[in-house]
């Protein structure tokens, strides 16, 4: 970034301002790309975590079903 207020000639001041604008646009573009790359990486990690959660939920449901069956088998017969 340049300090453009020190320029006395309008053409030089305009050129200085344009250089600053271009610098800032390039910096924003670079940051946008970096941010998008980070978001894309996090999207992949999130999808993997969701898949793992779904697998774990399925496993827990199966184990709960197995446990219920075992509890029914282990329960003493009721006396009537």
Task: Write a structural description.
- 81% of the residues lie in helices and 0% in strands.
- The protein has one domain.
- With 80 residues, it is an all-alpha fold.
- It is rod-shaped and about 105 Å long.
- It has one helix and no strands.
SSE map:
Elements: H1 10-74
Query: Which regions contain 5 or more consecutive residues with pLDDT less than 50?
Result: none
> Major sheet: size, sense and barrel closure?
none
| Mean of residue pLDDT values | 91
Strand content: under 5%
Number of strands: 0
Order of helices and strands: H
Number of domains: 1
**Helix proportion range:** over 70%
Assign an overall shape. Answer: rod-shaped
Secondary-structure content class: mainly alpha
Number of helical regions? 1
**Rg, Cα atoms, Å:** 33 Å
Q: What is the CA–CA distance across the termini?
A: 92 Å
What's the quick description here?
By secondary structure, this protein is mainly α.
């Amino acid at each position: 970034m340049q300090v453009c207020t020190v320029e006395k000639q309008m053409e030089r001041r305009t050129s200085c301002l344009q250089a600053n604008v271009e610098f800032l646009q390039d910096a924003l573009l670079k940051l946008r790309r970096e941010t998008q790359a980070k978001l894309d990486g996090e999207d992949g990690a999130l999808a993997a975590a969701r898949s793992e959660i779904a697998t774990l939920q399925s496993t827990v449901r199966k184990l709960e079903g197995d446990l219920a069956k075992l509890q029914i088998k282990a329960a003493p017969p009721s006396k009537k």
